[in-house]
């Protein structure tokens, strides 16, 4: 049996791949199994200086993702001797990854996209793992998808179950058991699950704590820090747009259309009485510095370099918003958040190029292993790395 701790992109991918290759698989997830429409209730965000975003439920944070499917760190991985190109291509085909189609480009997104193109920005439509025929365009992807139009790790978990995998929810793993220097199972409360293959995919804020218990090295935290900037454009209706329908790369990160739920209250506090449909916004997401740490307390701040990248991106976003018709007096910015905690068990330090730790049989396959801040959605990279690792187990 292989024991998989966590059921997000990395854990679910490993569970599916290992069950397909004949392993008995046990998935242990600390959160509950929930429907897509209730996934937002499972957010377990952490205030660490900036607000770090995650969810505890079956399927993990994929249940509240925007459905974005950008390749990231592909060239950087080659520096470690890891070529993910064939894995990316296979995953894109399997998940039906395609640029967001024209009929799912909402009015606010379209207005910003057309203005950015007119100004000569390098605009690309966001590749998505969203079934366009099932999308209800409610603008709530990050709260959970009520029609399951957006892929989530639940589909891989269902595949693993069909191959005989067992899934346990609502149970927290307390300890990874090591005997004679090798992985031997896990302890959850008074229960012991024994096996010599343990896959650690608990997320970049939990995985390093397991490694620290075993005196294994961990690494500083990235989080793809982002800021959302918005203002008033009466009747634009961006609150119903499929989020992040296009992206603009810039030196330091990417800029995307984004309706942030805090905008309305921020505008009301600033003296503007507006409805949700009267607000338009953009997100600036940066490749941030690794100044974060995970221990008894989780900390993630903003370095001078981070601030410069955020200001640079926000300058572009503000220009695009005002050019699209926003009254500059109404511009507000939401508090800083980190959407992709990662990097706390990096390849080359905490794990080798097979994603195995120095304890034989203990692997890490979540965002912890990313060697650099992606600065863009990492789900595709996590799936690709997990499949890469699964192919090497038992070689």
Descriptive report:
Pfam families: GMC_oxred_C (PF05199), GMC_oxred_N (PF00732), NAD_binding_8 (PF13450). Residues 126-149 form the 4Fe-4S ferredoxin-type domain. 24% of the residues lie in helices and 20% in strands. With 395 residues, it is an alpha+beta fold. The chain has two domains: 2-97 and 144-220 and 341-392, 3-Layer(bba) Sandwich (FAD/NAD(P)-binding domain); 102-133 and 222-338, Glucose Oxidase, domain 3, CATH 3.30.560.10. A hairpin with a 2-residue loop joins strand 10 (182-188) and strand 11. Helix 1 runs parallel beside helix 9 (379-392).
CATH class category name of the largest domain: Alpha Beta
Extract low-pLDDT stretches. Answer: none
Sheet having the most strands? 9 strands, mixed
- Give the percentage of residues in beta strands: 15-25%
Shape type: globular
Number of helices: 9
CATH fold name of the largest domain: FAD/NAD(P)-binding domain
Kindly state the number of beta strands. Answer: 21
Keywords: FAD, Flavoprotein, Oxidoreductase
InterPro entries: 4Fe4S_Fe-S-bd, FAD/NAD-bd_sf, GMC_OxRdtase_N, GMC_OxRtase_C
Protein name: 4Fe-4S ferredoxin-type domain-containing protein
Pfam families: GMC_oxred_C, GMC_oxred_N, NAD_binding_8
């Amino acid at each position: 049996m292989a024991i998989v701790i966590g059921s997000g992109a990395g854990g679910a991918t490993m569970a599916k791949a290992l069950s397909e290759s004949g392993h008995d698989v046990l998935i242990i997830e600390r959160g509950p199994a929930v429907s897509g429409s209730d996934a937002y209730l499972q957010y377990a965000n952490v205030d660490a200086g900036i607000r770090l975003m995650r969810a505890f439920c079956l399927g993990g944070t994929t249940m509240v993702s925007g459905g974005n499917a950008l390749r990231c760190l592909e060239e950087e991985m080659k520096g470690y001797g890891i070529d993910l190109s064939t894995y990316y291509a296979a995953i894109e085909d399997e998940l039906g990854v395609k640029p967001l189609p024209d009929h799912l480009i909402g009015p606010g997104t379209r207005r910003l996209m057309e203005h950015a193109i007119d100004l000569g920005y390098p605009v690309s439509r966001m590749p998505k793992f969203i079934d366009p025929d099932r999308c209800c365009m409610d603008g709530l992807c990050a709260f959970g998808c009520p029609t399951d139009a957006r892929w989530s790790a639940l589909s891989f978990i269902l595949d693993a179950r069909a191959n005989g995998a067992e899934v346990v929810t609502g149970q927290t793993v307390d300890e990874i058991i090591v005997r004679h220097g090798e992985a031997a199972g896990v302890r959850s409360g008074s229960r012991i699950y024994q096996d010599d293959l343990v896959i650690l995919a608990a997320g970049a804020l939990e995985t390093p704590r397991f490694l620290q218990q075993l005196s294994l090295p961990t690494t500083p935290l990235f989080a793809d820090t982002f800021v959302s900037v918005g203002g008033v454009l009466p009747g634009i209706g961006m609150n119903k747009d499929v989020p992040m329908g296009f992206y603009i790369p810039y030196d330091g990160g990417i800029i995307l259309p984004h309706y942030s739920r805090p905008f309305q209250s921020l505008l009301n506090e600033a003296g503007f009485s507006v409805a949700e449909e009267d607000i338009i916004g953009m997100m600036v997401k940066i490749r941030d510095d690794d100044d974060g740490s995970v221990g008894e307390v989780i900390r993630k701040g903003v370095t001078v370099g981070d601030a410069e990248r955020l200001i640079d991106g926000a300058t572009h976003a503000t220009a695009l918003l005002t050019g699209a018709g926003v009254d500059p007096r109404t511009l507000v910015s939401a508090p800083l958040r980190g959407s992709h905690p990662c990097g706390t068990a990096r390849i080359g330090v905490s794990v080798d190029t097979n994603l195995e730790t120095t304890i034989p049989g203990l692997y890490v396959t979540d965002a912890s292993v990313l060697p650099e801040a992606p600065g863009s959605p990492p789900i595709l990279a996590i799936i690709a790395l997990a499949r890469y690792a699964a192919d090497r187990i038992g070689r």
